[in-house]
Amino acid sequence: MSLNQAKKTVTLADVARVAGISKTTASHALSGKGWVSAATRETVVRVASEMGFEVDPLARLLSNGRSEKTIGFFTLDIDLSSRTRQMQIIQAQLNDMGYSVPIYAYGYRGRDALENQLELMNNLLAQRPRAIVCNTSGVRDEVLERLQKFVDEGGVAVCYGYSRSAPVRCDQVIYAEGESHYLAARHLIELGHRDIGLFNVGYRKPAKPFLTEVQRALGEVGAQTREKWLFGNDGTRRYEEDGARLGDEFLALKSRPSAMIVANDYAAVAFMARVTRGGISIPENLSVVGHDDDAIAPFGVVALTTISSSIEAVTVSVIELLNSRLLRDYSGEPRLVTVRGELVVRDSTAAPR
Amino acid sequence: MSLNQAKKTVTLADVARVAGISKTTASHALSGKGWVSAATRETVVRVASEMGFEVDPLARLLSNGRSEKTIGFFTLDIDLSSRTRQMQIIQAQLNDMGYSVPIYAYGYRGRDALENQLELMNNLLAQRPRAIVCNTSGVRDEVLERLQKFVDEGGVAVCYGYSRSAPVRCDQVIYAEGESHYLAARHLIELGHRDIGLFNVGYRKPAKPFLTEVQRALGEVGAQTREKWLFGNDGTRRYEEDGARLGDEFLALKSRPSAMIVANDYAAVAFMARVTRGGISIPENLSVVGHDDDAIAPFGVVALTTISSSIEAVTVSVIELLNSRLLRDYSGEPRLVTVRGELVVRDSTAAPR
DNA sequence: CTGAAAGCGCTTACAG
DNA sequence: CTGAAAGCGCTTACAG
Questions:
Q1: R_g over Cα of chain A
Q2: Closest CB to A4 among B1, B116, B154
Q3: How many angstroms from the chain centroid is the CA of residue B87?
Q4: pLDDT at A2
Q5: Strand D and A62 CB separated by under 7 Å
Q6: Does residue A270 belong to the interface with chain B, where contact is any CB pair within 8 Å?
Q7: More confident call, A126 vs B147
């Protein structure tokens, strides 16, 4: 709008003037701090509501420090998976506790260059929230350093993410990703599989904890992974599209593994559909295990065996850690909670051949 | 943290003192506004960075009005569907244009009581963003009134949502939901179906534009909907769960329709899986059409025929409307852009029997 | 119980 | 080119 017709909003001073008292008293009356006679308070409250007065949170913040009722949520990617559902649940719970919980996210996967991440964190920090919940998945160390500073200055932060604990001295809950993949591999091995392929989302090839844990499981029975059967992607597409591509690559294989571990249920469901239509029947010719136990898992071409990533448990822990700091004033050492996945057997896995 | 050891952060005044100049000049040097000698500017910039100075956005805001570089995103529900992908894309584009785009959402479906909605909007407004993008789906009029006030005060807002244009005098893009369902119904009717069932998410029964448009299509061939075949839900579960329940209800039906229009692809996919395992084959015994063309649509038990909700088109329009106001300083009358869905035929529909 | 005054950290006319 | 001063809208010792 070119004409900045900003209607003068009503301020505390206006209220005070109309009510015939000082700003100080008006402030006290409205906030409930300090002493004010019942009569005065009543007048002020009435006048304020008549005039449509609302305190400017900015001014309040500037004059008194931290924003007590807001908790910032930092996450790089809001994907269409249980992970986002998890964020929602955390947010909902905090809302119920009376906090405002704006989400600082940066578009979708593949856009989170360091510079963008830093800016995002700075924007969040600028709100001076009471606390910060940080999904550390994909977050760079430089960004976590800023978070560390926030903590050092007396802010409370709770981080959650995969495998490695983030380099921040704050409460954390981590999901033991490697162990989960180990579970998946063990399940397949016990069924008799030795030729196992891997697919990871967001990495060119299955990376660290995923790959090594599957190799460990395989090693226990004298088997190993094969380079040809290691798949990944660049993490910019949707899970289903990645899964379908994987299906194409799989169908093009000269020699195929008898089982696939696909690190995302949506990708796994799309993969199964593509491969089934390519003539492979699951689980007769191919076993598939997913990851996350997303809502879609039971409803694909065949009900998907998967690893529950304990969305629930992570959520509960995050809230609990936060509560102990916020409500119970706990101020001890940072705590680390580890959550494990569980195997959920459905119909997509069976003995090979 | 009980001991509020907040390290004194460095302020503009500190920088000015160390650089041996006034706050005014320091401010000018840093912001690039007003005249400052090159030498002074250089000194100030160096000192500032040495001291790790960063302007407090709050103070800046309080002293100069609106927050130029932030655009607030208001949406009630971040569901796990294309709708969220759409939000991400809009956010990403705005990020690329240099805006910070915090998301103000309120947990998940079913939690958005008026009171909560209002508070959410107030929190967003408190940021004094340059602009607001508002997904009006499910948003109450009282909340939109607040948004109207924002617009009246010179803020720019763009709303987008289903069917009805929101009661706000601002640019809007609406998705013609009713027409889309009409398309779905026509498609089925042309295939020969007369017995069509409906499922809507978030409503107890298929509501206004959905129901009436399907009835219109049916009316054109002298057919009509049947009360028994109208399904809905309360909108608090995940789409897949809703779809599975629908499947159970469908299987329990004494007489069944020959086709179902399911207003969400995830629900439709789960519905198909459940019903298929219950012995119904699609499309031989039952045709199904979904809605949204979500990423999952092609990958269920059978590839789903659906209506694309033109996520892309909505996104483009929202950005364009925003740009014309923000970049090109357009300040004319509010504009209304209508976007239509398109039928995407896949394998879940065929002639009945 | 009430109020004058200082202060939060910046920006911006306005006067040199 | 530079700076003293007022102001953004509130809160909070501190003094009545």
A1: 26
A2: B154
A3: 5
A4: 28
A5: yes
A6: yes
A7: B147
